[in-house]
Write a structure and sequence with these properties.
Strand order of the largest sheet: 3-2-1-4-7-6-5
Order of helices and strands: HEEEHEHHEHEEHH
Radius of gyration: 17 Å
Pfam family, one: Aldolase_II
Helix content: 25-40%
CATH superfamily: Class II aldolase/adducin N-terminal domain
Structural class: alpha+beta
CATH architecture: 3-Layer(aba) Sandwich
Number of helices: 7
Number of strands: 7
Keywords: Lyase, Metal-binding
CATH topology: L-fuculose-1-phosphate Aldolase
Protein name: Class II aldolase/adducin family protein
Number of domains: 1
Largest sheet: 7 strands, mixed
InterPro entries: Aldolase_class_II_sugar_metab (IPR050197), Aldolase_II/adducin_N (IPR001303), Aldolase_II/adducin_N_sf (IPR036409)
């Protein structure tokens, strides 16, 4: 699929499934080994057009054209520089995930099949103002430790080796956060899968091959 078309479809999907809202968030995908396409500043995720993307050099962060690249470009370029396997990066503020980002509640992965796989590693960074180099540097520093980085009091950034896997990772995270919160609200005690069972599940590829970081 054409990279721009893939990004347009991703934006529509994120909005339709309450994984993004308004002009909040930004998404990117590699166009080749040295460049990425990222949403331009101020774009609406649900209504992306062909000219809503900016080509950006991964190594330097320099971009082409008259449109201004998203202010969160330093996060995206940092991830691509540290993780050569990554092909797509999504930054958004879904309701339940952001609620957890604004609290000290723990996000558990040992709940069901998809959480065991997609939420195996979650990293955290402290609050830095959006679009700052400090935020970009903090995300870059954590990029090799997880495929999900919670931005405290801000939102989340997820990334993977394909757009579909990045979306699935984000969707699983939001689902888990919602489940954990609803369980607390209703007094339901969630049963966690034992650690040795989780390890067996991941190492024996009982869902799909375990993804390596890096």
């Amino acid at each position: 699929m054409n990279v721009k078309k893939e990004l347009i479809e991703a934006g529509k999907y994120l909005k339709a499934n309450q994984l993004a809202w308004g002009t909040s968030g930004n998404i990117s995908a590699k166009s080749d080994e040295d460049h990425m396409l990222i949403t331009a500043s101020g774009t609406y995720m649900a209504d992306l057009k062909e000219d809503d993307f900016v080509t950006c050099e991964i190594e330097t962060g320099k971009y082409e054209g008259t449109r201004k690249a998203s202010k969160e470009t330093p996060m995206h370029t940092g991830i691509y520089r540290m993780r050569k396997d990554v092909k797509a990066v999504l930054h958004s503020s879904p309701f339940y995930t952001t609620l957890f980002a604004c609290s000290n509640e723990k996000i558990h992965s040992e709940l069901f099949v998809e959480t065991m796989y997609y939420l195996e590693n979650i990293a955290y960074v402290d609050y830095f103002h959006p679009g700052t180099q400090e935020l970009g540097d903090a995300v870059t520093e954590q990029a090799t430790k997880a495929n999900i980085i919670i931005l405290k009091n801000h939102g989340v950034v997820v990334y993977d080796d394909s757009m579909s896997e990045a979306i699935m990772r984000l969707e699983t995270l939001e689902m888990a956060c919602r489940m954990i919160l609803k369980a607390k609200e209703s007094g339901v005690k969630l049963n966690h899968i034992p650690e040795h069972v989780v390890t067996s599940f991941l190492e024996d590829s009982r869902y799909k091959p375990r993804k390596k970081l890096g």
